[in-house]
Amino acid sequence: MSTRSRAEPRLKRRLGPAGLGLEGRIASHRSRAASSQPPAAVRQSDQASPVLLPPEWGQDAPPLLRPASAMLTAVLAVVATLLALLWVYFSWNFDYWSKRGVKSCNPFSLFGDRGAGLPFGKPFWSLLDPVYEKYRGAERFVGTFQARQPVLVVLDPELAKTILTKEFSTFHGRGQPIDEENDKLSLNLFNINGPRWKNLRSRLSPTFTSGKLRLMIPLMEDVNKELIARVRELSTEKGADGQVEFKDMLLRYATDVIGSVAFGISCNSLKGEVNEFYKMTREVFSRSFLFILRVFLVSIHPLFVKLMPFKSIFNKTTNFFIKLMKDTVEYREANKIERNDFVHLMMQLREDDRLETDRVHHIEFNHSVMTAQAFLFFIAGLDSIANTVGFSLHELAIEPELQQRAADEVRDMLHKHGGMTYDAVKNMNLIERIIRESLRKWGPVGMLTRAPNAPFKIPDTDVVIDESVLVQIPVWQMQHDPTFFPEPQRFDPDRFTEENKEQRHSYAYLPFGEGPRFCIAERFAVLEMKLVLATLIDKFVFTVGSKTDVSMQLDTKQFSPTPKSGFWLRVEDRP
Ligand code: HEM
User: Fold this and answer.
1) How far apart are CA 153 and CA 290, in angstroms?
2) For residues 359 and 157, what is the distance between their CA atoms, to the nearest angstrom?
3) Which residue's CA is minimally distant from atom 29 of ligand 1?
């Protein structure tokens, strides 16, 4: 008995009476195959059948497969319709720029010429490279698309000045919708716009006055001492050959500083303790891809901000930080503790709430609003600070002469001011220029964005853009443009002498943004970076070691320029 004939009774048993039809069809197909001539009954039902068969199947196709083919055809039709609708939705706006006579990039280049908001293999900071390279010097602005949203890329620093500063009343927002209801930490200074932003910004700005910063120095100094001890410990470990990896080290440093000045807690990350705070911070950063994905999806449609399950993704970290803030505030209230940090300043703001007159645009300083601000400060102050200091050390290790000059300046200032005081750090001119140049060459924020809240006529043109447009200013590209910074790959802190700064347009260098919405913490960030760089250079000599990646390959998966294999440097005590 053949295999097939043995299988048939089994099939029949399983199908029962209902299977007879199937068995009959199998039999008919078999006999048709034998004679190549379908029986009349089958031909009849073929003609009556509404089923559409793919042409290559011909009329000899087995009737058994026809329902499946119908299903396939229906699915294909639905997919094709959906794709067509999607295409219409995406391309609806693609004549936005041509209608206005604006030079524009190929809108079909979602993943190519312009690149989408989501970096498919391209690092985020270099997304605007192709546009910038093609049009720099020739155009003041170019029209592009981020998914389906029209994006005006500004290539001229003077136009950047108009948008960021002169016409701020039209461009006060960043065009990023938020889900205040579900995402409790989204109600922060970076995200909100209009009068609410103005109200919050004016209340938070006093946090960063020189008087307040002066008081934060001792908090940072405590962490600096731990940093020095840890560098010494690691560099003298057996087999280390004096080499230390500074990416992780500086991240721990920045976490301990921001933990102390923003949340008022000792994280002890530098001591190697695996604490919840450090774990949470890393969790936030390991999800930078999700943040970028959210930005991209929102550029397709703002509703995505509500539809995507980001709430549950970020819930764990959100709840952790809200509880941390609540516990800290309650503990301080109960024990009457005052400390010169952000928590204390926000507790004072909460007290001032009672006196607030602008009740409409006023944001009450409850636990979650306080946490949202502290959380933003903390996100903004980790990788940006750690990487800028790391890149500075890397450059100084490559240029020993420059390093020696910087060390001489530090010792001179320490001597003059009797230690690492606020005034000593403030007067370290070369150290500041090194940080500024590091922010030029390796700046963490690749582009600035603004969204108009009313139609806006671009000066000296007839072009009017409306509220649907996003404006992007290519910071990374301008800071690497040889027109403004000759030999852009050369590390040269002298680009930031007063004399040299006057030679170029000030809006060609925007690491902290510009206009009323520039980085609120620029002074704090520069102080912290100068302080830690000066402390390290005062204590150690940094040189290139066998593990140093002198050519500095960047990790293209990160949101900001980050070294692929860390900042490995050889360290010795400075005599
Ligand atoms: C190297 C360090 C840093 C860099 C390069 C940097 C850069 C920036 C940039 C480019 C912006 C947007 C400005 C604009 O749109 O014009 C910004 C905004 C902001 N940054 Fe920073 N930042 C740094 C550190 C910090 C730190 C340490 C904090 C907090 C402690 C902070 C808090 C903020 C806040 C709250 C905003 C939003 C301001 C607003 O919208 O009113 N940043 N920062």
Assistant:
1) 24
2) 38
3) 377
- For residue 334, give both structure tokens: 């109960």
- What does the DSSP 8-state code read for residue 179? -
Cα–Cα dist 511/497, whole Å: 17
Task: Please check whether residue 370 is in contact with residue 346, taking contact to mean a CB–CB distance below 8 angstroms.
Answer: yes
Q: Is 550 helix (H, G, I), strand (E, B) or coil?
A: coil
Q: Is 146 exposed, middle or buried (0-12, 13-18, 19+ CB in 10 A)?
A: buried
Interhelix angle 400-417/383-398, nearest 10 degrees: 120
Residue 115, token pair as written in the block: 């690149």
Residue for token pair 């934060």: 216
E strands, 28-72, where? none
**In sequence order, what DSSP letters do the residues of 165-181 get, joined into one string?**
IITTTTS-B------TT
Query: If you search the block for the tokens 């999700």, which residue do you land on?
Result: 290
Q: Which of 87-101, 354-368, 458-472 has the least mean pLDDT? A: 354-368
Spatial contact of 188 and 351, defined as CB atoms under 8 Å apart: no
Question: Is there a binding annotation on residue 519?
Answer: yes
470-473 and 149-154 beta bridge pairing:
parallel
Task: Give the pLDDT band (50/70/90) at residue 272.
Answer: confident
Token pair for 419: 């230690």
The packing angle between helices 246-258 and 276-286, to 10°, is 110
**Closest by CA position to 440, among listed 394, 495, 385:** 495
Question: Please, where are the H alpha helices in 236-274?
Answer: 246-258
With a 6 A CB cut-off, is 179 part of the ligand 1 pocket?
no
**Are the CB atoms for 455 and 465 separated by under 8 Å?**
yes
Token code pair at residue 525:
């960030």
Which protein residue's CA is at the shortest distance from atom 19 of ligand 1? 519
**Total Cβ atoms within 10 A of residue 335:** 7
Across the range 63-70, mean pLDDT stands at 67
Pocket test for ligand 1, best of 168, 250, 512, 560 (most atoms within 8 A of CB): 512
ipTM above 0.85, yes or no: yes
127 class by beta-carbon count within 10 Å (0-12 exposed, 13-18 middle, 19+ buried)? buried
